[in-house]
Amino acid sequence: MEIEKRKTIKDLSLEFSVQLVDLATKLSTKKSVLNINQLVRSGTAIGAMVREAQGAESRRDFIHKMKIAFKEAEETEYWLLLIGRKNALKEIEALKDQILQIQKMLSKIISTSIANDKKPQ
Questions:
Q1: For the chain, which domains are there?
Q2: CA distance 108 to 121
Q3: Residue 51: in which H helix or E strand, if any?
Q4: Which site from 16, 56, 64, 90 is most exposed, i.e. has the minimal number of CB atoms within 10 Å?
Q5: All residues at 6 or more sequence positions from 91 whose CB lies less than 8 Å from its CB, including other chains
Q6: pLDDT, tens digit (0-9, with 9 covering 90-100), for 70-108
Q7: How many Cβ atoms are within 10 Å of 67's Cβ, its own excluded?
Q8: What is the mean pLDDT of residues 3-32?
């Protein structure tokens, strides 16, 4: 039996983006869709900022980019909550669970990075 490796924030954010685009495609056929484009923009920006942080020029640059990713996750959660009130779909509930996991992971990455940045080198 192979042990599943722990997923990284890069993996989680990419999987989340793919599922979000699938949901947007499904919802685009409904007339009651509220700002689905904004949901997709903020949701896919998370992974883009995480990837950009990987090439950061300094630890502070890394922290800054991760903070932007966290802000995008907060916005995405808002849109999921709003759209979820108008569209009761199991995919939305699953995405809400995933965004909370992403937020927790980003928060931990940011706090650890800040703590490491304060240590003398």
A1: 9-114 (1.20.1440.60)
A2: 21
A3: helix 36-54
A4: 90
A5: 19, 22, 23, 26
A6: 999 999 999 999 988 877 788 899 999 999 999 999 999
A7: 18
A8: 83
